[in-house]
Write a structure and sequence with these properties.
The structure holds 3 protein chains of 3 kinds. Chain A contains 19 helices and 14 strands. By secondary structure, chain A is an alpha/beta fold. In chain A, helix 9 runs antiparallel to helix 10, helix 10 crosses helix 19 and helix 18 packs antiparallel against helix 19. Chain A is globular. Chain B is globular, with a radius of gyration of 23 Å. Chain C is built from 13 helices and no strands. Chain C starts with about 25 loop residues before the first helix and ends in a 5-residue tail after the last helix. The chains are: A alpha/beta, B mainly alpha, C mainly alpha. Chains B and C meet through helix 1, helix 3, helix 4, helix 5 and helix 6 of B and helix 1, helix 2, helix 4, helix 5 and helix 6 of C.
């Protein structure tokens, strides 16, 4: 006898009831309009804009949007913020599902290229041609990462972030040595600091891109920007003698105990690596220019008392690279979704023209210790309390003939992942330079 | 009666799974159009040496965490079932790790394990300043410890409940027969806990397969790929490498592995309907 | 060794029960268990202690020499920051989502488990196999199709979007645990219900439900915790700050280059306190629910 047959109908009735209870509960909670479908925004012709949350940038970006909305009350832009990692996941799923915001915040380079190949972003080349005043007020070096196959697909924005070699002046005085002028000097300094129980270099190795900064500078100084670019675009370039030399130098530095003990466990995002510098446990550190602001806010008296020194990465003897070249983030990039409505695209372009990197926004960036990619901000920089550092960064950014974009942003995502992976193994001394080269050759230069 | 559960599961579990299966036969970067591509993604995935490595890491972590958690939970469960004075207060404290989200736990441990600013400098114990998350083997050990830290409270709760169900009369009878404490443990406690062990183990093993949050925030699969379990490999391939096709293939493999394990555990657990209360 | 039984004053016990709780002498003299217990206590309390004291440190002092020392200048700024960041709203959202998902999930799984154990036939057998297979479905893998389904259903950016898939993913394991448990209910009890003229529905609620309390409690807790702390579903399926749940709040303190660790920890503490309170208050019910065995 089947005990089930009798009350199946009753059960079916309840089958609907149970989920409905849940739905009712939920409906009480989700008050307000629910935005579903569409192109990610329902604010008329204003459009939507997604960007990163958190200090230092969030407030500045929000202020810019507010200024625009005040001046354009009929075409307001609706802003939504996301934390860094969350943003990376969300923007991809949104674009993939046709739900992208009107204005897409990004890092340019390989990521932008993947959007372009999928036909998801607007070609802005002609717009820039029609609006030369916009183009001219920005650093020329910032357009490299916005350009794909000769066409411009993004508006450069925000700040320039070269990689800087920081050092602790107090520790240098204590040990009685001078800041390095060449890479050879660095190798001499390593045993001297180790003998005093001070780590020569702080490094947040777990974050991987931190290790990558070292390789980038090795390549840049050894073989100039030709080598730097070649390894991304030309097949087999990683096996070049200069490339292999650069890879070997990294391992030599690790073996010489150039980096703080346990560096592979230290992450950059908790600032543990920067803390090593300003707490006097490490003598030097290679890091992005944004680290300055963090050291000011978290380092107590370290920076105000003038203990923080900075310089561009020194040249390597026998290398052909220009010592003025630099690498890092030439800017951040705003693209317009190709799926947005015509009105929304117009609003976005107006936003770029009138609100992005306005003098007010420039000042806000400068106040946080960063250099916006706008030309002609010298007087504002000099008025800032951080003028020494800011002028230094401005100098590097404007004088560098070549500003390379960080490999992990410039490469397409799949290759970038392989790169970071192998870099991690290289610094762990798990693979040889030759193996590294073989692995990378398989994914680059296609 | 089974319909509501079935409905939900089919709608939000099975259909997406079929979707993933379908995706594994395509090439898609997650952004543009989806291109059906037959077996390309599968071939690429099966040839990738990262796959067997990920499988190995997954099983290693699964087995080791089971081996560590089960005895500890058993011991703690029996302990908590007893009558020690501070048991109630202890039980409250024990439970807290379970209430924390995996992300919170990962952040906490990352800070505590920092060789310069973490526990080692806090307690002044130099030995604790190892390259915990920087060396492959150590990272795996650390991961297992943290997972256990998080889930042992739950499993000891299960065991505690299980122990409480064992009738004292069984022990009394054994005692009369002259059996010592240890003998009682192995001959009575353990067998009576059979179903509890199976339930707890199923939860542990299957849970560890889809483990992601903790590992991702703690090591992101590192150092290099030492803790890169299947789920992490899938996420990296799909969301970071923009290769949805191979990522979907990995997902399908994950499901097949899980299915196999679940069936295996089912076999061990038996379909028997006899009550464990016989002989009491 | 004494074998007199003293009533367990700590817990509610049903009268006329077989005396349970493990062997007497094992309880009185369980030194390996005791040692493990105290050792584990130490292991558990240190990170918790760290979380609490660090949540009172400023992010500037955060790297002070000894992480285990209490802060020299205690500050509530982190807590203020967290609450300013719409903590209450996130909390309510999390509550709605958790209740809205766990209750239907457990009920539906219970009914399904009962049907599978008590019923016959291929349909039920294949349902069971289907649920088993579902045990290993990784959430991260299916997130994109789920996202697409939610968009089509026009549920994007609602709490329902989080609730529905959560129910689906809670079902396989719950069915497994519950069916294992129901299997243990002696057949005679079912027989006697049938003799009394009860239909399946009555048997379900009047017999199986109360007897399955331990498993129901286990499953409710397990799913509740997973959903309360769930991160991926809210992340992908909601967008506006009004719909955010607590785990996303954690992410709010991770800036572009840096993490405000003390603030993150303050939000962790605030997220955990409600459940902790619930646990302390409800511990007795919890344990009695878990330990209600079969009366004999």
């Amino acid at each position: 006898m089947d005990p089930m047959t009798t009350s199946r109908r009753t059960f079916l009735k309840f089958a609907v009831g149970v989920p409905l209870t849940g739905a009712a509960l939920a409906a009480c909670g989700s008050s307000g309009p629910s935005q579903a479908g569409g192109t990610g925004g329902t604010s008329g012709s204003g459009g939507t804009y997604w960007y990163l949350s958190g200090p230092p940038g969030e407030k500045i970006r929000t202020d810019t949007v507010n200024r625009f909305n005040k001046a354009n009350p009929d075409t307001k832009i609706k802003a939504t913020t996301f934390q860094n990692d969350a943003y990376k996941a969300k923007i991809k799923t949104a674009i993939g599902a046709g739900q992208a915001p009107t204005i897409i915040w990004g890092w340019g380079g390989g990521g932008l290229r993947s959007y372009v190949q999928a036909g998801q972003v607007e070609d802005l080349t002609s717009w820039f041609a029609d609006n030369p005043d916009v183009k001219d007020r920005l650093f020329p070096s910032s357009f490299g990462a916005a350009t794909v196959d000769g066409k411009i697909y993004a508006m450069p924005a925000e700040t320039v972030q070269p990689i800087v070699l920081y050092y602790n002046k107090k520790l240098f005085d204590q040990v009685g040595v001078q800041p390095p002028q060449t890479y050879g000097d660095i190798m001499d300094l390593v045993p001297k600091f180790n003998a005093q129980g001070i780590a020569p270099f702080s490094l947040g190795g777990q974050s991987r891109w931190t290790n990558m900064m070292w390789l980038e500078f090795f390549f840049l100084r050894l073989g100039g920007s030709e080598l730097f670019q070649k390894v991304m675009t030309q097949k087999g370039a990683w096996s070049d003698p200069q490339s292999l030399k650069g890879l070997q130098m990294a391992q030599d530095l690790v073996k010489a105990n150039g980096f703080v003990k346990g560096f592979s466990s230290i992450t950059a995002d908790s600032n543990a690596d920067q803390a090593l510098l300003f707490r006097g446990k490490a003598a030097m550190m290679l890091h992005g220019s944004w680290s300055y602001g963090i050291q000011v806010s978290q380092g107590g008296k370290f920076v105000p008392e003038g203990n923080l020194g900075w310089m561009n990465f020194p040249p390597i003897d026998g290398g052909t690279g220009d010592p003025a070249d630099t690498v890092g983030n030439p800017g951040q990039y705003l693209s317009i979704s190709s799926k947005a409505s015509a009105a929304e695209k117009e609003t976005a372009k107006k936003f770029f023209k009138t609100a992005v990197l306005s003098p007010e926004e420039n000042k806000e960036w400068i106040d946080t210790g960063q250099v916006p990619i706008s030309k002609g901000t010298e007087s504002q920089l000099n008025a800032s309390k951080d003028k020494d550092f800011l002028n230094f960064v401005y100098g590097i950014a404007s004088k560098a003939k070549n500003f390379g974009q960080s490999w992990d942003q410039a490469l397409p995502p799949a290759a970038a992942e392989t790169l970071l992976d192998n870099i991690s193994k290289l610094f762990q001394l798990n693979i040889t330079p030759q193996q590294f080269a073989d692995n990378l050759n398989k994914v680059t230069g296609q | 009666m089974v319909l509501p559960a079935l409905l939900f599961f089919v709608a939000f579990g099975v259909i997406p799974l079929l979707g993933v299966l379908g995706l594994s036969f395509t090439t898609w970067d997650g952004i543009g159009a989806i291109h059906p591509s037959g077996l390309t993604s599968w071939r690429e995935t099966l040839k990738d040496p990262a796959l067997p490595h990920a499988l190995w890491v997954t099983f290693l972590i699964m087995a080791l965490s089971w081996a560590f958690q089960t005895p500890m939970s058993l011991l703690l469960g029996v302990f908590l079932a007893g009558r020690q004075k501070y048991r109630a207060a202890l039980a409250v404290v024990y439970f807290v790790p379970l209430l924390l989200s995996s992300a919170a736990i990962a952040i906490t441990y990352k800070a505590l394990l920092d060789p310069n600013f973490g526990l080692s400098s806090g307690l002044g114990i130099g030995f604790l300043a190892q390259d915990w998350l920087g060396r492959g083997r150590l990272a795996i050990g650390v991961l297992i410890f943290i997972v256990s830290w998080q889930y042992i409270p739950f499993h000891s709760l299960i065991y505690q409940a299980g122990v409480r169900q064992i009738p004292t009369s069984m022990y009394e009878a054994a005692q009369l027969d002259g059996a010592g404490r240890i003998r009682q443990f192995f001959s009575i406690t353990l067998p009576q806990l059979k179903y509890t062990i199976i339930t707890s183990s199923t939860l542990m093993v299957v849970g560890s397969l889809t483990f992601f949050d903790l590992i991702w925030v703690l090591t992101a699969g590192g150092p290099a790929d030492a803790t890169r379990v299947l789920a992490v490999q899938m996420y990296i391939k799909g969301f970071q490498g923009n290769q949805m096709g191979p990522a979907s293939a990995i997902a399908v493999i994950l499901v097949l592995v899980g299915l196999g394990l679940a069936l295996l555990l089912r076999r061990i657990g038996g379909d028997a309907r006899e009550s464990q209360m016989e002989g009491a | 060794m004494a074998t007199t039984l003293t009533p367990d004053t700590d817990e509610a016990t049903a009268p006329h029960r077989v005396h349970t709780g493990g062997p007497r002498n094992l309880r009185q003299w369980n030194w390996p268990g005791g040692l493990a217990g105290w050792l584990w206590f130490g292991i558990v309390i240190i990170p918790i202690y760290w979380i609490v004291i660090t949540s009172f440190k400023t992010s500037a002092n955060y790297f002070d020499a000894n992480p285990l020392k209490p802060p020299t200048d205690l500050t509530f700024e982190n807590y203020k920051l967290v609450i300013q960041e719409h903590f209450i709203r996130y909390f309510v959202n999390s509550l709605v989502v958790t209740l809205g998902a766990v209750v239907p999930a457990v009920l539906a799984s219970f009914m399904a488990a009962y049907a599978i154990v008590r019923g016959r036939g291929r349909f039920l057998w294949s349902c069971n196999a289907l649920f088993l297979a579902g045990l290993a479905i990784p959430l991260q893998a299916t997130i994109i199709p789920i996202y697409l389904i939610i968009i089509r259903l026009k549920l994007y950016d609602t709490l329902l979007a989080i609730i529905l898939p959560s129910i689906a993913f809670a079902i396989p394991l719950s069915v497994l645990v519950l069916s294992n448990f129901i299997r243990d209910v002696p057949n005679e009890l079912f027989e006697s219900m049938r003799v009394d003229g009860a239909n399946e529905w009555k048997t379900l609620w009047n017999l199986a439900f109360p007897l399955s309390r331990p498993a129901l409690v286990t499953v409710t807790i397990y799913n509740g915790l997973i959903i309360w702390n769930g991160f991926l579903l809210p992340l992908v399926l909601t967008q506006s700050p009004e719909r955010r749940t607590l785990p996303l709040a954690l992410a709010a303190f991770q800036g572009q280059y840096t993490v405000n660790v003390p603030a993150v920890l303050a939000s962790v503490v605030l997220t955990t306190l409600p459940i902790l309170t619930l646990y302390v208050v409800g511990r007795r019910q919890l344990l009695s629910g878990l330990t209600a065995g079969f009366g004999k």
